[in-house]
Write a structure and sequence with these properties.
Strands 5, 6, 7, 8, 9, 10, 11, 12 and 13 form a nine-stranded mixed β-sheet that branches. A four-stranded antiparallel β-sheet has the order 2-1-3-4, with no helix packed on it. By secondary structure, the chain is an alpha+beta fold. The longest helix has 9 residues, at about 15-25. It has helices at about 5-10, 15-25, 90-95, 115-125, 145-150, 190-195, 230-235; strands at about 25-30, 30-35, 50, 55, 60-65, 95-100, 105-115, 130-140, 165-170, 175-185, 200-210, 215, 225. It starts with a helix and ends with a helix. It folds into three domains: about 5-55, RNA-binding S4 domain (Structural Genomics Hypothetical 15.5 Kd Protein In mrcA-pckA Intergenic Region, Chain A, Roll); about 60-125 and about 220-235, Alpha-Beta Plaits; about 130-210, Alpha-L RNA-binding motif (Alpha-Beta Plaits), CATH 3.30.70. It comes from Streptococcus bovimastitidis. It is an enzyme of class 5 (isomerase). Belongs to the pseudouridine synthase RsuA family.
Length: about 240
């Protein structure tokens, strides 16, 4: 890999900015000042430092975002703020994208990465990766709804796989309830449509988990962080 490309990928700046740093001999390769942008290096063997700090090349990035309502799960949109707008410049520069989607008015856990193979496996129906949601519902879900979810809700354009419905709380005076729903698919508006098929309506929807990833309670709406090592390793096992 060219040295200037490595420096850009390591987050040191744009191609023009890193070339300026190289001209000033502020970058060292294996302990020696280096000014040649086209120098070929091995990111896994050569040591590259800037002002005494070693730079690390990362091919893939993994972000955990607590997506707020009103933000679309896309990399660009002419009308609305996107989830990518909430991340840092490194994520945008390295073409990070959301794994699956959350509806504009749905909030909660969203994974973003540039690891296409991992994204494919997480979204593949063959992998049966659980996605867990908590919903506020207008109407009261009943035992017959639990059974319908378990058998597989039939929508107008899709036969859903068996899912799990848990009733967490019931407010009989307001005729509402709070439920937890676990599905293995991710069709358009699927959770809302499944509840609607039972004659009720979702008024608020939050995703709590996707596979081994769980929403970090320390992340405020709109905040993000890199995956920690345990989270990353649990995800990478899905690639095997």
């Amino acid at each position: 890999m060219r040295l200037d490309k490595f420096l850009v990928e390591a987050g040191l700046g744009s191609r023009t900015e890193v070339k300026a740093l190289l001209k000033k001999k502020l970058v060292m390769v294996n302990g020696k000042p280096e000014s040649q942008a086209k120098l070929q290096i091995d990111p896994n063997k050569d040591q590259v430092t800037y002002q005494g700090q070693e730079l690390v090349y990362e091919e893939f990035l993994y972000y955990l975002l607590n997506k707020p309502q009103g933000v679309v799960s896309a990399t660009e949109d002419q009308l609305h703020q996107t989830v990518l707008d909430l991340l840092d410049e490194t994520a945008r520069r390295k073409s990070v994208f959301p794994v699956g989607r959350l509806d504009k008015d749905t909030h909660g856990l969203l994974l973003l990465t540039n690891d296409g193979d991992l994204a494919h496996r997480l979204l593949s129906p063959k992998k049966h990766v659980n996605k867990v949601y908590e919903a506020e519902v207008d109407g009261i879900m009943m035992e017959q709804d639990i059974e319908a979810f378990a058998q597989g809700i039939s929508l107008s354009d899709h036969q859903c796989q068996p899912a799990k419905l848990e009733i967490l709380a019931i407010n009989t005076e307001a005729n509402t309830c709070r439920v937890r729903i676990t599905i293995k698919e991710g069709k358009f508006h699927q959770v809302k449509r499944m509840v609607l098929a039972c004659g009720k309506e979702v008024t608020d929807l939050q995703r709590l988990s996707m596979g081994p990833l769980h929403l970090d309670p320390q992340l405020a709406l709109g905040d993000f962080r890199r995956l920690n090592e345990d989270e990353l390793q649990s995800l990478l096992k899905l690639k095997v």
